[in-house]
Amino acid sequence: MKKIFLILMTAIVAVSCSDHLEDLNENTKDPSQVSGESLFTNAQKNLVDQMVTQNVNLNNNKLWSQYLQETTYTDESNYDQVTRNIPDNHWSVMYKDVLKDLKQASENIASTVYTTDELNGRIPNKLAIVEIMSVYAYANLVETYGDIPYSEALDINQLLPKYDDGKEVYIDLISRVTAAVNSLDVSKGSFGSQEERIYEGDVSKWRKFGNSLKLRMGNMLSDDAPAVAQAAILSAISSGVFTSNDDSATYNYLSADPNTNPVYADLVLSGRSDYVAGKTIVDIMNTMNDPRRAVYFETVDGTNYVGGEIGFAANFATHSHMGAPFYSAQNPGDILDYAEVEFIQAEAAARGFAVPGTAESHYIAGITASFDYWGATGVAGYLIQPEVDYNTAIAASTAADPWKEVIGTQKWIAMYNRGFAGWNSLRLLDYPILSQPVDAQSGFPTRYLYPVLEQTLNGTNYEAAAAAIGGDAAETRLFWDKFYTFDF
C-alpha cells in the first residue's frame, strides 16, 4: 500500500512539474490570438505603403509614368522589371502582407465576443470595411498582372492555386464592394481612430470610399464592357461618391520611423539623392504655365523648372527635385482622391454615359480639386488658357478621341503623387504621349510580369495564365486596355 501511495505521489508531482514548466515557457505578454483589429491596422498600413512608395525595389510607376527620373541607377526608368524582382515584391506584399492579414482579421473579428453590446454591434461594419480594403487590393492585382489567383488564393490547402480570369474576377469584385457598401450602418461605429488611420472609423466616409472605388473600377471597364461600366458608374454615383477633398482616402502618417510616409523614407531617411523631376511632366506643365509646379517641384535657379531626360542618369544638382510636401514625414498617403473621382465622371460623360453633369463641368472640378488639395493658387487663370480650356483644347486636338487627350493629360498631371493611378490612366486613355527612354528594355509596360517564384513553384498554373492573357510580356495589354498609343 505504501508503495502504491509513493507511486501515485510521484506521478502527481511529475504532472505538476510538467504543467509548471509549460507555464514557464509561455510568454504571458503575448495574446494567444492576435486581435482582428491589429491585423487590419497592419494590413491597411502595408497596403497604403505599397501604393505610395517610390522605392525602386517595390514600385516603379512614378518612373514609368515619367513623373520622375533616376539620377544614378536608370534600369527602372528604362522599363527593367527583372533586375530588382519588382513583380515578385509587389505580389508578395499584396498577397502576404495585405490580403492574408485582411482575411485573418475578418475571421478573428467575426469570432470575437466583445465586452459590450455596443462593441458587438460594430462587428458588421468592421467586416464590411475589411471587405472593401480586400476588394481594393485584389483590384490592384488584376489591374497590374491580369489573370491572378483568386478563388483558390489564401487557401492553405491550395499551395499551387489556379489563376482566375481577370475580367471575371474584376466583375465579381464590383459585386463584392457593392454588397459591402450596402451593409454599412452609419448609425453604428467601427474601428477606433488608432486602429484605422484613413477615416478613423468614420462609417459614412467608408461608404463614400466604397462607392468611389466602385466608380473607379467601373470606369476601368469602359472600353471593354461599356454596359457593365455604365451600370457600375451610375450605381456608385447614386449611392454617393466623393464630393470634396475632405472625402479623399488619405492615410495619416506619423513623424517617427517606421510610421512615416515611405516617400519621406526614400528622399530623406535613405540619405540618398535618387530622384529628380521627369522631363515629360515638367515640359508639359511648363508649356501650360501650371502653378502646381511650385508644389510638385523645386526650381533649379529660383525661376526655372528642369526635368531629367527620360532614361538618362540625371544630375541631381542641375534638375528640379520633388517639392517640399514630399520631404515631410507626415505627408498623407493618398490611395483614392476627389480629383480622380471628378475626372472619372468627366470621362464617363464624354463617353456618353448618363452621368449627372457634363464632361466640361467635371473636368473643371477635377482640376480645381487638384489645385485645392495642394494649396496651389491661380486656378481661374489656368483654366482659361487655350491649352487647358476644355472646348478650346478639344477643338485643337488632332487625336481620334480628343476628349481622351484633353481629360487624360489633366488627369495624369493631377495624379503626380499617385503612381499606380497615373499608370492606370495612361493605359486607359493613352494620353499624354510619353517619351521613349534612351535604353528601353521593352515597349511601354502595360502590366507587371508574373513573379519568377510563380514561374518556378507554380509552373503549370503560371503557363496557363500566361497563355490566357496573350503571353507573359511587359507589352501584353490586359482585357480592359483596348487601345495603345505608346508604340515606340
Name its key features:
single chain, 488 residues, mainly alpha, Serine Threonine Protein Phosphatase 5, Tetratricopeptide repeat, 3 domains, two-stranded antiparallel ribbon, 20 helices, 6 strands, 51% helix, globular, disordered N terminus
Structure description:
With 488 residues, the protein is mostly helical. The protein folds into three domains: 36-243 and 442-469, Serine Threonine Protein Phosphatase 5, Tetratricopeptide repeat (Alpha Horseshoe), CATH 1.25.40; 262-327, no CATH class; 338-417. It contains 20 helices and six strands. The protein has helices at 2-24, 36-52, 61-64, 86-111, 117-120, 123-145, 166-183, 203-220, 226-239, 262-269, 279-287, 293-296, 338-351, 359-374, 379-383, 390-396, 402-414, 419-429, 452-457, 459-469, and strands spanning 68-70, 148-149, 163-164, 249-251, 275-277, 333-336. The strands form three sheets. A two-stranded antiparallel sheet has the order 1-5. A two-stranded antiparallel sheet has the order 2-3. Mean pLDDT is 93; it is low at 1-30.
List the helices and strands and how they pair.
Elements: H1 2-24, H2 36-52, H3 61-64, E1 68-70, H4 86-111, H5 117-120, H6 123-145, E2 148-149, E3 163-164, H7 166-183, H8 203-220, H9 226-239, E4 249-251, H10 262-269, E5 275-277, H11 279-287, H12 293-296, E6 333-336, H13 338-351, H14 359-374, H15 379-383, H16 390-396, H17 402-414, H18 419-429, H19 452-457, H20 459-469
Helix pairs in contact: 2-4, 4-6, 6-7, 6-8, 7-8, 8-9, 8-13, 13-14, 13-17, 14-17, 16-17, 17-18
